[in-house]
Design goal:
By secondary structure, the protein is mainly β. The protein contains 2 helices and 24 strands.
Length: about 325
């Protein structure tokens, strides 16, 4: 049974720094859809790239890794309503028809609403993407220009067909009113994001802020073996300004390739562009001085934290190279 994997797609740089608000891993879900006869709508919210299994069939026909509706034999179109994992400002969409070569929709449009109480019937739905033509087996990237915050989106496909993955990229908008709550202010679901990094040969640093523990070495940040002086680093933005009380550094699954040491620098800064942060980060004060690492282990730090009144960004230094699975910054928003 042959399996084909989707080719690597080089996403625009600005999209790589955004959060997929429709990521099932952090809570996005399908609320309802018009039809999912051939393939369940929830599949298009998966993080992993789609696959094509040549000889795989189920009771409805060819198994497809995505959402696929039956052939429409009457007027109308198909649709799916998605509850976003977190409320956010939408900046880009990816309607991916990979492996849907003869069964992709002719076109698609997207609407969105803000219904924090979940009452989408009473909410005002706003068009954020007019009807656009789609093509076979490819990513369709659309830039969205809106300053509004949304909690739900509705994907409309005309008249029917299949979508492998649907991603809603944007900036997380979290409730900043409860300043007594301790939360992981670096987490993907709380608005943490990657700004820059020295190397990501084996694994991208965005994995550092994924939910849960890493499932394998591929679900972490891993650099190639360093053959020159220096060390690897990555810069991340917190979802909210915070005073840090606890740090967790997890080297899960990294046994022969964990770093010798890890240190974290930090800063509070306003209105700086991402490009300005990169050279400045070398001179940020330490939040956590270099600490020795162990293989496949969660390292907890409380007393070792060098206090800052508040921080907005960190630079993680992996000395000299290797792999880290997760980093958690536990603190109170200020």
């Amino acid at each position: 049974m042959a399996t084909l994997f989707a080719p690597i797609f080089d996403f625009p740089h600005h999209i790589q720094q955004l959060t997929n608000l429709a990521d099932a891993r952090i809570g996005a879900e399908i609320l309802e859809c018009s039809d999912e006869f051939f393939a369940e709508a929830k599949r298009m919210l998966q993080f992993d790239a789609p696959v094509f299994v040549e000889d795989k069939f189920d009771e409805h026909g060819k198994w497809m890794d995505g959402w696929e509706t039956r052939r429409k034999r009457f007027a109308g179109y198909d649709w799916a309503i998605i509850k976003l994992a977190v409320a956010g400002q939408i900046q880009a969409l990816d309607i991916d028809t990979t492996f849907f070569s003869g069964n992709y929709p002719s076109s698609a449009s997207v609407e969105a609403c803000y219904a924090p109480d979940g009452n989408i019937e009473a909410a005002e739905w706003i068009s954020i993407l007019e009807n656009n033509v789609l093509g076979p087996s490819q990513h369709h990237i659309f830039s969205i220009s809106t300053s509004q915050t949304f909690t739900h989106v509705r994907l409309n496909i005309y008249p029917d067909g299949g979508v492998a993955r649907f991603k809603v990229y944007g900036s997380v908008k979290i409730d900043l009113h409860d300043h007594d709550q301790i939360l992981d202010v670096l987490a993907l679901e709380n608005g943490g994001r990657v700004i820059a990094y020295s190397d990501a040969h084996f694994g991208h640093p965005r994995n550092l802020i994924n939910p849960g523990r890493g499932i394998n070495m591929g679900d972490g940040w891993e650099t190639k073996r360093r053959r020159a002086p220096g060390f690897d680093w990555c810069i991340l933005a917190l979802g909210a300004n915070a005073r840090i009380e606890k740090i967790d550094i997890d080297t899960a699954h990294f046994k022969g390739n964990y770093p010798a040491e890890v240190s974290i620098q930090a800063i509070y800064i306003e209105d700086a562009t991402d490009l300005q942060l990169i050279p400045q980060s070398m001179f940020w004060p330490f939040l956590l001085e270099a600490q020795p690492m162990q293989m496949d282990h969660i390292h907890h730090y409380i007393d070792e934290i060098l206090q800052h009144e508040k921080i907005s960004h960190i630079r993680v230094n992996m000395i000299p190279d290797g792999g880290i699975s997760r980093i958690r910054l536990w603190g109170k928003m200020v």
